[in-house]
Design brief:
The complex is a heterodimer of chains A (about 725) and B (about 525).
Chain A: E1 13-14, E2 19-22, E3 32-36, E4 42-48, E5 52-56, E6 79-83, E7 88-94, E8 104-109, E9 112-117, E10 122-128, E11 135-139, E12 148-152, E13 156-160, E14 166-171, E15 176-182, E16 191-196, E17 200-205, E18 208-214, E19 219-226, E20 229-234, E21 238-243, E22 246-252, E23 257-263, E24 272-277, E25 281-285, E26 292-297, E27 302-308, E28 317-322, E29 326-330, H1 335-373, E30 387-393, E31 402-408, E32 414-421, E33 430-433, E34 443-448, E35 456-465, E36 473-481, E37 487-488, E38 501-505, H2 510-520, E39 531-536, E40 542-547, E41 552-557, H3 560-573, E42 582-584, H4 586-633, H5 636-683, H6 688-702, H7 706-715
Helix pairs in contact in A: 3-5, 4-5, 5-6, 6-7
Chain B: H1 7-16, H2 20-33, H3 38-51, H4 64-68, H5 125-130, H6 143-151, H7 172-176, H8 179-192, H9 199-219, H10 225-238, H11 241-254, H12 258-270, H13 274-287, H14 292-304, H15 308-321, H16 326-338, H17 342-355, H18 361-373, H19 377-390, H20 394-411, H21 414-427, H22 432-445, H23 448-461, H24 466-479, H25 482-495, H26 500-515
Helix pairs in contact in B: 1-2, 1-3, 2-3, 3-8, 8-9, 9-10, 10-11, 11-12, 12-13, 13-14, 14-15, 15-16, 16-17, 17-18, 18-19, 18-20, 20-21, 21-22, 22-23, 23-24, 24-25, 25-26
Chain lengths: ~725, ~525
Amino acid sequence: MSHAFTVQFVRAAMLVPIFTLKLNHKINPRMVTVGKFDGVHPCLAAATQAGKVFIHNPHTRAQRQAAHRLSQSAHDSDISLLNINQAVSCLVAGSLEPGQVGDALLVGSQTNLLAYDVHNNADVFYKEVADGANAIVLGKLGDIPSPLAIIGGNCALQGFDHEGNDQFWTVTGDNVRSLMLCDFTGDGKNELLVGSEDFDIRVFKEDELVCEMAENETVTSLCHMHGSRFGYALANGTVGVYDRTARYWRIKSKNHAMSIHAFDLNADGVVELITGWSNGKIDARSDRTGEVIFKDNFSSSIAGVVEGDYRMDGQVQLICTSVDGEVRGYLPASKEMKGNLMDTSVEQDLIRELSQRRQNLLLELKTSRLTEGDAQMGVIPANTQLQTALCVKAATEAQKAHIELNISTPNETIIRAVLIFAEGIFEGESHVVHPSVQNLSGCVRVPIIPPKDIPVDLHIKAFVGGRNSTQFHVFEITRQLPRFSMYDLHVDPAAPQPTGIVCFGINDRPQRVVMWLNQNFLLPEGIDAPDVKFTCLRGGGLLSISMQPSGEITLKTDDIDLAGDLIQSLASFLAIEDLQAEADFPAYFEELRVTLTEVDEFHSVHQKLTAAMADHSNHIRTMLVQAEDARLMGDMRTMKKRYMELYDLNRDLINEYKIRCNNHNALIACLKSVNQAIQRAGQLRVGKPKSQVIAACRNAIKNNNVNALFKIMRAGTASS
Amino acid sequence: MAVTMDPLFLAWSYFRRRKFQQCSDVCSKILQDSPYDQAAWSLKTRALTETVYIDEVDVDQEGIAEIMLDESAIAQVARPGTSLRIPGTSQGGGPSPAVRPVTQSGRPITGFVRPSTQSGRPGTMEQAIRTPRTAHTARPVSSSSGRFVRLGTASMLTNPDGPFINLSRLNLAKYAQKPNLSKTLFEYIFHHENDIKNVSTQFISKTHALDLAAMATEHAQFKDWWWKVQLGKCYYRLGLYREAEKQFRSALNHQEVVDTYLYLAKVYQRLDQPITALTLFKQGLDHFPGEVTLLTGIARIHEEMNNVTSATEYYKDVLKQDNTHVEAIACIGSNHFYGDQPEIALRFYRSRLLQMGVYNCQLYNNLGLCCFYAQQYDMTLSSFERALSLAASDEETADVWYNLGHVAVGIGDLTLAYQCFKLTLANNNDHAEAYNNLAVLELRRGRIEQAKAFLQTACSIAPHMYEPHFNMATLSEKVGDLQSSYMAAQKSEDAFPEHVDTQQILKNLRQHFAVL
């Protein structure tokens, strides 16, 4: 895996905008789109403050007659506002119905999805979405015939067609932050890529999970480049490009990438990755190497990057918007310029390479001059090797439970410092240990606590040298940390037995399971029979794995997530495509039952609160009109009285609103845990049984049939 | 020995004959003897409800509060022709304001007075409150409080023992379980209890109705379309239009009922989405082909959007289905009249409306006008006489005198015209058109100051009419007061941008100023 932290030597060409607009509206980041609402003219639509969406249409100014009744300035008349009356969380424009002339505008908020036909001022549909809509994408998915509007919410994905029927629903691991449709597998049909808050990028073929890529921060944007290549952006300022599951390159910056888009800016036939940053910079990077080709500066953070033929002159422009309402359009470089740019980049490549080589040579020269002087220092025996060992250490009073990485040299050389580079374990991705001068020894122990059960590669660089040397040799070694390292073979016999149990059958020899165990767990001596017990170092519970000669495996643990992970790992090791399982987790199911009743309660309270608030606001409106009436008549005393009543009513309304907010948040948390429960039940199976379980669970919840839900989670199938 | 009728049967018979007060009295007596008699309780509830029952479908008064402070429409400035708030330019080829009088919002006067087409949308709160608040044109402060104070009579029903059903002590959950009682109770709360003027009890009763409906729907396992429609109506009253839409749509899924289509269309009209409402009506027509109420709905929406030709087409469809539909006849008639075809209009008014038994001042007034312009002079004056005798209020009298004034101008008798207009003003001090016409007559007599005074009054009463402004502009120009002429001409242009004469004046004035 290449982790290229390239230093940017190249000076990129500045981009000159073809048009600049200053709109008087702020733009919310990541909520910008371009659509042809009347079928012909592209218009910019973006979400702005106070739950409104504005549409900028510069094309009809000539056609509109000066209607004095609508007194607007010429500039403002290009902008029309739409009242959404809720905080907008995502926005996209596109064609939802194949026969329709204009594009529909889809606006998602935390509770609803509105599909709106701007040209005819008519709703296409307005649906309530219980899981919220954090991201939205429009297009065809897999085998589903009609184009869908797919929204990603709190742990769930839903797809709606132009009539508002939900044709597609599935659960995913955590809150969805970004979505993308592309042909990932190359089979001619689109797959859905989902970036979530649990740092994973998942690929779904309709509702089946094809594969998963793990990153180390929330995936905030995904954008399709070409073929199966796509760009991604993380919340910590990383931007990069993947081709299928392999990462091509990535760069890290201290600013956040607000928006990414693929556009061919230098007219060379290959799209570049355009990134808009939170400090107002826009840059275009080549998709192969990641070097910057163009850049530009805005005065405030970028809100969104889209493309469209805004000037209606036949050429597609790249349109960049900032949160202050500044819009700039760039044309792809013309053919004459293309030649120059290519030459300059090749030249600059060469210059960079040569200067780097020069630096390396200079450094070598300097060190060799020094070593000539002090011949004794820095020499170590020729067969010095760095040894690493991993072992599990249970919790003591001094330290939490951890894995100990033991780095040592076999002879009397000492280790001066150790750099460990690993993704996802240390903050900042690397860890440096340099013992103080008194404690130098040939052995360094580093505690490692992996937060999740994923295999991690540890890249270790150690400085080895003599006791008094000032120069050290650098040893590089890579060690893989097995997936389930935080599990200790030493079991406390007094510990309570776990109540959760999963049983499933495989057609494989026990030896293969033993191989899997040896590979994925930290077993100091290895085992020969697939019958083991572990103590979980993170939670303290017990895990027991046993296998009958008939092929039936029994897992006993209280942690349903762990059970799911184990099954998924075993299934991928043994290359099992479909696996059915029976499970029972009494403690967890009890919690789920309680959560479901809470959901019902919250729903009914929510309804009452909404009605009460609506009534209240009607009263406020009446009171306001009466107060105005009194003022116009000059009856100041009544007016004052009314305004005082208004003040009280207003305060009451605000309190009611706070209560409603709390209720809503609690409801959302409950719904999320329900979705996660479905997800976990799905993880216990593989392949077709998994999708069946998820679909059956969802039906059970839709029909409010709690008993059926538990039956499905236990047995894997609905009752027939 | 006379055999007395079973009291419950007697009460039921009164109910059938619509003698609600007696019915409710008999029921009260039964309940005094046996307080747990469910049948008697149910019957009394229904009787009380029927006394104040208003068909929700047709009534749609928007209060001032709803218009000024409402943000439920999505598009603030929709494309002309797709919104009820901004009338499109007369795309249907209807007559211009020079021929057909317009209301304050710029829409031509329709043939039928409906509660929602009173005056157009005022621009500011001040304008909204200041528009004349007489019985005809007044707007209630807010539809939830205003309408029921006006129309309700139950508040005047004195009940010596206190209210029949004490809402605050009602165990709604228990009633929700009993389907035969819950529906009557719901209707009672929804219609009857709203008339209590006390704000706080009003507040409680609406949420009570909603609670009861919610519980009953749950009890029926969400499969009963009737409860969904009632839930939708509750949400509509509370102003939660999106929730109402959801309920109505789900009710439609269960059972196609015409009423549900009408309620849902009302919701879309409040959300200012006429095209969605039109698609909905067309869907309804698929299920109920030729249904008159749906066709009327479509025609009304077209009229509100200024599509006079499409509206007429649909009204004709309505008449094909139902020959007696008064609204359709009246609208087609007035369209023909203003479209310069008074004979056809006459046919509609005389033969069809008179035959329908419509016998009031307005019809005879229209008949008189049609006869005059169709040159049937024998009928004209007698129709107007009839109209005058049938006039129920001063404003109607004023309107009749105004039209008589027009007739007088038509035959050349200017003194008669003068007298008619004066009589108009005597009956209705705010009749802007009369002031304007009087001003023209005074001008002919040479009394310029009088004319100016009349014109100024007309301008201030009716700023949306272009005639007084135009006349003011012409008068001032003749007198030499170019500044006020210019200002008046601009106002006239605002009201009616395509008026050629106004533009002529403005051009002349601009040339004058350029020379200066």
